[in-house]
Automatic annotation (TrEMBL):
<dbReference type="InterPro" id="IPR005881">
    <property type="entry name" value="Ser_O-AcTrfase"/>
</dbReference>
<dbReference type="InterPro" id="IPR001451">
    <property type="entry name" value="Hexapep"/>
</dbReference>
<dbReference type="GO" id="GO:0006535">
    <property type="term" value="P:cysteine biosynthetic process from serine"/>
</dbReference>
<dbReference type="GO" id="GO:0009001">
    <property type="term" value="F:serine O-acetyltransferase activity"/>
</dbReference>
<comment type="similarity">
    <text>Belongs to the transferase hexapeptide repeat family.</text>
</comment>
<keyword id="KW-0012">Acyltransferase</keyword>
<dbReference type="GO" id="GO:0005737">
    <property type="term" value="C:cytoplasm"/>
</dbReference>
<dbReference type="InterPro" id="IPR045304">
    <property type="entry name" value="LbH_SAT"/>
</dbReference>
<protein>
    <recommendedName>
        <fullName>Serine acetyltransferase</fullName>
        <ecNumber>2.3.1.30</ecNumber>
    </recommendedName>
</protein>
<dbReference type="Pfam" id="PF00132">
    <property type="entry name" value="Hexapep"/>
</dbReference>
<keyword id="KW-0808">Transferase</keyword>
<dbReference type="InterPro" id="IPR011004">
    <property type="entry name" value="Trimer_LpxA-like_sf"/>
</dbReference>
Length: 195
């Protein structure tokens, strides 16, 4: 959870690093100008930080601007990603259209979401996504299920039961086709980079 200015910058740098562009002022400006989803993530992080965690009067104007930009981009790109969602370091969203995330969901570090993904609640319980999880297009995750660490969820899967660590889940309803496998290769995990 973002608690201070240093953590906010670390979160944004980790999101930038996940794009594979490196982390510098130049790459930030380039990614912000050319990558619409990165732009959304930046405003999500800023709006979450200034609106939920720092309700000080001195930040009122910036909190207002951040929330307006976040809502504008959320509407423009059809992304329903509430500010109350707890998201770890290194969030990556590919193609980002039609993304719906329940407000009580928890998403771990180095998660990758793609288009048409839904994280929905059932009986007031929302999904908990572990670290290094790749969620493919069209996936629906329903209820208080726990997705373990280092998991790949195949396209158009319906996940309504827990998925253990180091596995691949596919199908409707989901079934695990690999119970143990080596970590899938992703060069740009946040932990591989020192800020």
């Amino acid at each position: 959870m973002v608690e201070n200015e240093t953590n906010l910058i670390k979160y944004i740098k980790s999101d930038l690093y996940r794009l594979g562009t490196g982390v510098s002022k130049y790459t930030f400006i380039k990614a912000y100008r050319t990558n619409k989803i990165f732009r959304f993530i930046v405003w999500f992080r800023l709006a979450r930080h200034y609106n939920l965690l720092n309700r000080k009067r001195q930040y009122f104007l910036f909190a207002f601007i951040a929330k307006i930009m976040y809502k504008k981009l959320s509407t423009k790109y059809c992304i329903d990603f509430p500010l109350t969602v707890k998201v770890g370091y290194g969030l990556k969203i590919n193609h980002g259209m039609a993304l719906v995330v329940n407000s009580k969901s928890i998403i771990g570090n180095n998660a990758m979401l793609t288009h048409s993904v839904t994280l929905a609640s059932e009986k007031n319980e929302a999904p908990i996504i572990g670290d290094k999880v790749r969620i493919s297009p069209g996936v629906v995750i329903v209820g208080g299920v726990c997705i373990g660490n280092n998991v790949v969820i195949g396209a158009n899967a319906l996940v309504n039961k827990n998925v253990p660590d180091n596995s691949v889940a596919v199908g409707v309803p989901n079934r695990n086709i690999l119970k143990e496998f080596d970590e899938f290769t992703e060069r740009h995990y946040f932990e591989n980079f020192e800020l």
